[in-house]
Every structure is written in structure tokens, then in C-alpha cells.
Design brief:
The protein is of the alpha+beta class. The chain has one domain: HIT-like (HIT family, subunit A). The chain is built from 3 helices and 7 strands; from the N terminus they run H-E-E-E-E-H-E-E-E-H. It starts with 16 loop residues before the first helix and ends in a 7-residue tail after the last helix.
């Protein structure tokens, strides 16, 4: 599934970093995708918090209100499955954030909290915990491979 090329939908105004990412299909960060939704890990630049995922529609859509009912359902199912997968990987809670104004392509951040994270590093500061597991490109790829192995099946199909 990860080597499959999917059509790219780019906004008329120019290129989109997220559309480009989908077209590149980097197996080191891509956890899962189907015909409508992409789930990937934050790339290491030079390191990344292990457990920071993005859920994004494959079709270029700026925000939640711009999704069709079918796209909204697909994004919602992917959020649920990715969250359950992060919990299966050992995170005790998964935060969801939507910050859509810097890159005009919907991307929902899912960030897993580690069980031993101090209280002051919860919520929007979860990835600021200095002792949180982080990794370089190879560690992120290994973590992504583990998430693929743990990927929680969609019970609605």
C-alpha cells in the first residue's frame, strides 16, 4: 500500500507542502493511507518526538468545514484508528490539535502522551517534555514500522 501512487490535488494558487508530502509517499514517515486520508509521523529535523502523527485528507482542503461528509467521516475514522494505535504503542492519552493557518491544508496533529510525563508537560506542552523519547530519521522510521504493525483495524468495515 505504501508504494502506491495517488493522485495529487494541488490548489490553484500553487504548490502545497502537504500535497507534496502525500505525493512523495515517504515510507519512513507514512503510517497508513487509503484513497482519502493520509496518516504520517512528524519527520525528524534533526529529531522528532516519537508519537506525533498527522491525519490529513489526500484532497487539498483548507479546514474541517471544507470537508465533504464522506471526507469528514474518513478523517474521523482515521483519527480514531491512529489514536487507538498510539495507545497500543504505549501512550496513555492522545491529544488532538488542529492549527490550520500556517499551511492551508487540513492537518490534525495527534500527539501521544507517555505514561510518565510530568503534569507540567501535558496538553499543548506534551511534546516539550525534555525526557520524552525522540529520534532521528532511522528511529522515526523504526517507530513508524512499529505503528504499522500495531495499526488498529477499522471496525466499521
Amino acid at each position: 500500500m505504501h508504494a502506491t501512487a495517488y493522485p495529487r490535488t494541488v490548489p490553484a494558487s500553487g504548490d502545497c507542502l502537504i500535497c507534496d508530502k502525500h505525493a512523495a509517499a515517504d515510507p519512513g514517515i507514512e503510517v497508513w493511507r487509503d484513497g482519502m486520508v493520509y496518516v504520517g509521523h512528524l519527520p525528524a529535523t534533526p529529531t522528532a518526538y516519537l508519537g506525533h502523527l498527522f491525519v490529513e485528507p489526500l484532497e487539498h482542503r483548507p479546514g474541517l468545514a471544507d470537508l465533504s461528509t464522506e471526507q469528514g467521516s474518513a478523517v474521523g475514522r482515521a483519527i480514531q484508528r491512529a489514536s487507538a494505535t498510539l495507545r497500543a504503542a504505549g501512550h496513555d492519552h492522545v491529544y488532538a490539535f488542529v492549527f490550520g493557518d500556517r499551511v492551508p491544508h487540513l492537518h490534525v496533529h495527534l500527539i501521544g502522551r507517555y505514561p510518565d510525563a510530568p503534569t507540567e508537560y501535558r496538553g499543548t506542552r506534551v511534546d516539550e517534555w525534555p525526557e520524552a523519547p525522540r529520534g532521528d530519521t532511522s528511529a522515526v522510521a523504526a517507530y513508524v514500522a512499529r505503528l504499522r504493525d500495531l495499526w488498529v483495524a477499522d471496525e466499521s468495515t
